[in-house]
Every structure is written in C-alpha cells, then in structure tokens.
Amino acid sequence: MTAPARILLADDHALVRHGVRLILDNEPDLTVVAEADDGAEAVAQARSTDIDLAILDIAMPRQTGLQAARELSRLRPELHILILTMYDNEQYFFEALKAGASGYVLKSVADRDLVAACRAAIRDEPFIYPGAETTLIRKYLDRAQQGDALPAKPITEREEEILKLVAEGHTSKEIGDILFISAKTVERHRANLLQKLGLRDRLELTRYAIRVGLIEP
Amino acid sequence: MTAPARILLADDHALVRHGVRLILDNEPDLTVVAEADDGAEAVAQARSTDIDLAILDIAMPRQTGLQAARELSRLRPELHILILTMYDNEQYFFEALKAGASGYVLKSVADRDLVAACRAAIRDEPFIYPGAETTLIRKYLDRAQQGDALPAKPITEREEEILKLVAEGHTSKEIGDILFISAKTVERHRANLLQKLGLRDRLELTRYAIRVGLIEP
DNA sequence: TCGAACATGGGTGTCAGCACCTATGGACGC
DNA sequence: GCGTCCATAGGTGCTGACACCCATGTTCGA
User: Could you count the other beta carbons within 10 Å of the beta carbon of residue B5?
Assistant: First the structure.
C-alpha cells in the first residue's frame, strides 16, 4: 500500500471545508494536508506544500477556483485538479476543462461520488458528475472534433474590471468616472464582453458575474 | 444529562449536509435526526419528525430556507430555527429574524461557532454570526423602537411572478405576452416592486431574486 | 519591423427602462 | 355602501443600454 494522496482543499466556507475534510480523511488513501480560503491562497498553498490533488470551489473571493485552476495548471502541469461547485452549468464545465481540471463535481452529489472523483482524478481519469456525462461530454467531444474546443476568447483584465462594475449596477458614466476613462470606452468594453461571453445585456452579465463568483448577489 | 437535541438539517448540497452532520453528531448533546434537500421537504420532515431545532440553508430549490422558516414558525412556534447561509447580507438577516429564526450563521464560520449557535438557539438565546452583532443588532433594535421593525410591504403573488420573469431577463413586452397582459401592466408591477423593495432597476431586482432563491444565477 | 491585440474615444440611431400622470373594475372587510 | 387593495391599462418624456460605424496610440511577439 502506498502513501495516501495529499490533497489541497479550497473553499471559502470554513464549515463546508471542514465537513468535506472529515469525509475525505475518513478514507485511508486520501488525506487533506492543506486548506485555503480563496483562490489566491490556494495557489500560494500549492506552491509551498507538496500536494497531489487540488479540490477547488468556483465561487471564492479574490480569485475564483477557475482562475486558480488556470494558474495551477500552468505552474504545476502534473497537479490533478478537481472542481467542486454548486453550479450545474454547462459553461462552467467547459471553462473548468479549459482551465486544466480533470474533474467536475457538484456539491449536491453524495460523499461516495466525491471520493470516487478524487480517486479518478489521481489516476488521471476524467470524472464528470453523475447524470451529466452523456450530454456534456458529447458536446465537448463534438466541439473538439471541429477543432473548436476552446471557442471562447479569454476576457482581459480590464474587461473583468468593467464586468464587475457593470454587474454591481453602475452606469457607464459612473464606471467611467471610477476608472478615469470615458463612458464611451466603458461601453466599448461592455460590448466586447457581451460578444465574447455570448450574452445579451447587463442583466445577463450580472448573473454571469454572480455565477463565476466575481460579485455577491 | 438529558437526551441530545434533535436536529433537522436542510441544505440542497448533499456534501455540505453530510459534512455538517459529521460536525454536529460529534457533539454529545446534539444529534441530527432528519435531513432535507429543499425547503418543502424540510417543512414535511418537521411535520412528521420530532425535532427541537431546524437548521435551514437560504438558497434551496422549490422553497427557500426563509420561506420554510416562515411556515415552520407558524406551524410549530416552539421550534427553534437557525439560518445557515453563505450570504453575509443585512437584508437576509432581517428577513430571517422576521421569519422567526433565532440565529443567523454564516457558512464561513468555524465549526465551533456553529455548535455554539445551535446550543444558543436551543436555549432560546439569539445568536448572530461573529463580527456582525454590533451593527446588525443595533440597527434592528433601532428599527424596532420606532415601531418599524417590519417596514417592507409584502409583495403580492402577481408581483413575485413578474419579479421572477424580470430577473430571468425578459423584457416587459415578452412578459406581457407570457402572462397575457399588456407590457404597460408589467411595468406597473415592476415599478411597484422597485418601490416596495427599495431597489433601483431590473439589475438589482435580479440580484434580489437570486438572493432569495427565486431564480438561479 | 510589422501586424495583432488591447485600451482608448468619438458619432449616430433605436429601443427598453423607468418616473411621473391618469383611470377602471373587482374583491374584501368594516 | 364605502373605502382600500389589487390588477388592469393608457400617455408622456427622459435617459441609459446597445448596435453599428469610425480612428489612434501602445505594447509585444513573430
């Protein structure tokens, strides 16, 4: 028997983190050796601690789990990453895969499924949450075959900044005043965001920002 | 030593539920005897099971924790209710108190705090999450002294219907077509909603609807 | 060094959101 | 019966959102 897999657990809710830790530590082949409150801390922990698997929540302050996943898979390509989230959402799923995650698990699954997902991730097998494999994987493969696996252009830092302010309810003029640019430029960025994300208006931008944890409802 | 307090735990995420259950069952004076996936099931469980304390998440499908709390405190006024949520939000806090909850705890607290909150709720002492007592309680008492503890007019069924559709991103005309009324009437209801809830525009209505669990992000 | 990507900003036009105003008809309680 | 609340609906007017058009300066990698 080999040593248990060393896990980093990142979730901004201490209660959830502690509960999941109890579940995982109960397994002989899994052990949680680090915890993180947010994405930035998760990256820092992964740099300083020897871990095999990172379990990342999506909605976290400072840096979302998806952002952390992108950074971690760039810094340490051999690290296994599991996204653990409450959002049963196709767009997230694709973003998670693009960010280098090998698994996507909902918080609504049973604990046995989480443990199975951890083991699959460690063996480098993809694991998608139960009930979604068929449609989601099929769509993903369809896109991949068309050479179109990563269709979405990444949004820039400035755009993310604008996105956050738009989603918080500020008008173009207000945002312009905050960032010391013209309202026109704000609208330019907003239009680019709508186009890149395939959304219709500020309202959908808001829901998107809430989904990815950029702002609180 | 008396028998442990019997607890109902309602959260739509099985993982979270299981983790919290492990935390609570570890305490000799607390025992989780029932679980629920959503607000409606929580009410059903509370009817059929003998419990002392209900721990309710806010964001749950079918019926939010706040709605369930209102119903439970009407059905069984002697039942202790604890709201456990990820939302550090003043409006929620007041709504929780109005709904009959004696405690409001964030998921970001440590497990010791959750256990303490359970014990406080069972002893019928109010428990507010650490760090917020001063401002929140003060505001609440200020309002109560002005005889203004429940300032908000309740929104009607029709308004809630409109709210949901607005928050989902439909235009007035679309909503009118869906409900077979004129766009003008939709705007009338929307204006009433804005006024009753003290909000500024559709975007804030959307965030409100997400907060109270009326729609998903 | 040349092009691509990015941030900047201007113009024009349409339309939906929202704030005011008005009114009517039904239900319900006092 | 009379007032109150609710749902219905119309008018007017302003303004922000959004879709198109356009150009300029910087930076950075091929």
Answer: 21
How far, rounded to the nearest angstrom, does the alpha carbon of residue A60 sit from its chain's CA centroid?
9
Could you give the count of Cα atoms lying within 13 Å of A169 in the half-sphere of its Cβ?
12
pLDDT confidence band for B71 (50 / 70 / 90): confident
The residue with greater pLDDT, B91 or B13, is: B13
Residues of A with CB below 8 A from B206's CB? 203, 206-207
Instruction: DSSP letter for B156, please.
Output: P
Sequence-separated (6 or more) residues with CB below 8 Å from residue B142: none
Q: What is the pLDDT of residue A93?
A: 74
Give pTM, 2 decimals: 0.65
Residue range(s) of every CATH 3.40.50.2300 domain in chain B: 5-142
B102 interfaces chain A, CB cutoff of 8 Å: no
| pLDDT (mean) for A140-164 | 64
- Report residue B144's pLDDT band, with 50, 70 and 90 as the boundaries: very low
What is the per-residue pLDDT across B29-62, written as a single tens digit (0 to 9) for each?
A: 999 999 998 888 888 888 888 899 999 998 787 7
CA of A169 to C1' of D14 (A): 20
Give the tokens for residue B62: 């079918």
Q: Which CATH class is domain A157-211?
A: mainly alpha
Select the residue from A83, A89, A203 to test the B interface by mutation, using most B Cβ atoms within 10 A: A203
Name the band, by pLDDT with cuts 50, 70 and 90, for residue A149: very low
- Which neighbouring-strand residues pair with A133? none
3-state secondary structure of B58: coil
Q: How far is B72 from chain A (nearest CA, A)?
A: 24
The 10s digit of each residue's pLDDT in B174-186 is 999 999 999 999 9
Rounded to whole angstroms, the distance from the CA of residue A92 to the C1' of nucleotide C24 is 50
Contact partners, residue B113, CB within 8 Å, separation at least 6: B105, B129, B130
- CATH 1.10.10.10 segments of chain A: 157-211
C-alpha neighbours within 13 Å on the C-beta side of residue A81: 32
Extended strands (E) in chain B:
5-10, 30-36, 53-57, 80-85, 103-106, 127-128
| Separation between Cα atoms, residue B64 and residue A151, nearest integer Å | 36
| DSSP code of residue A80 | E
The rounded distance, in Å, linking the Cα atoms of A207 and A66 is 17
- Would you identify the CATH topology of the domain A5-142? Rossmann fold (3.40.50)
